Amino acid sequence: MNTTPSVQTPDQILLRLDWHVIRRLDGLFQGDYRSLLYGYGVDFADLREYQAEDDIRYIDWNVTARMDTPYVRQYVEDREITAWFLLDLSPSMAFGGLERQKGSVLVDFVATLARLLTRNGNRVGAIFYDNRIELTIPPRGGRVQVLRLANELLKRQPSPQGAMTDLRPLLESALNIIKKRSLVFVISDFISMPGWERPLHLLNRRHDVLPIRLWDPREVELPDVGLVLVEDAETGEQLYIDTRDKNFRRRFYQAAQDRQGELTRTFKRVGVDMLSLSTEEDLVQAIVRFAELRKRTLRKSR
After folding, report:
1. Domain 10-34+82-301, what fold?
2. What is the pTM assigned to this prediction?
3. Element (H or E) spanning 162, and its range?
């Protein structure tokens, strides 16, 4: 998979992200990333009667109704986070423009989140997947671990085309591999055969699962550029299409919207927050948007 528009070393990638992404995030979050990671590592401990200074969001309304007195939930926070990246590295992840493909966004996103997590003493690991488990990197902390993740991603060779991606084995493997409760990022374009909803649901029952859907605008709306030869990134099948045909472009767009709608409904049924990240979107703004989404979801759940 060609993951960068030019040859870069892991050190160069990390230096670029430190300057152009992480420094900006530090300014926006002021070093506090709990709004992004909140919900992980917080375990229910006990109930007690409500006191005047308590946050009303922690009131347990069921217990309050039974006891006829306000009760609040108390939590114990686990300060150490173990995070896993489940990485879809199938051929369709190489799609995108000359300057920025889904694969290059994946590298930047993983390196950024790994850097943010490990510099605060947390550990990160990864599972590389391309219709089979290619590599499992056990969780470790430190800058060396971030560099290893980036290096393993950069040195990957494109896999041969031939079969549609099936994400189910990746999620089922994660159920067996990840023992301790963890923060799990599932990074994929979710162009997959059906059947992955149930293992994702099971994974979310054990861990805090955050799906990251990578996409490219050309997968949604075709430009009017005449007769072009297109190739299925997964199977290698080729087909000539006439992009001058307005009806074809309209059907193409509608099919993409339908697929997006189905994905949104699937994630809602599973009960997870999805970040939809375009190859043309600023990574900083995407992460800020995701943090806002998680804060809104938390408020609704309390």
Report:
1. Rossmann fold (3.40.50)
2. 0.80
3. none
Burial code (b: 16+ CB inside 10 Å, e: under 16) for 211-231 equals: bbbbbbeebeebeeeeeeeee
CA 57 to chain centre: 27
Name which of 145, 157, 158 is nearest 111 in CA terms: 145
- Chain-centre distance for alpha carbon 13: 19
Question: How many Å apart are CA 222 and CA 219, to the nearest integer?
Answer: 7
The residue extents of the domains of the chain are 10-34+82-301, 44-77
Give the DSSP per-residue string, 168-217: HHHHHHHHHH--S--EEEEEE-----S--HHHHHHHHHHSEEEEEEEE-G
**Residue 85 β-bridge partners:** 126, 185
Residue-wise pLDDT for 112-165, tens only, equals 999 999 987 889 999 999 989 999 999 999 999 999 999 999 988 767 666 788
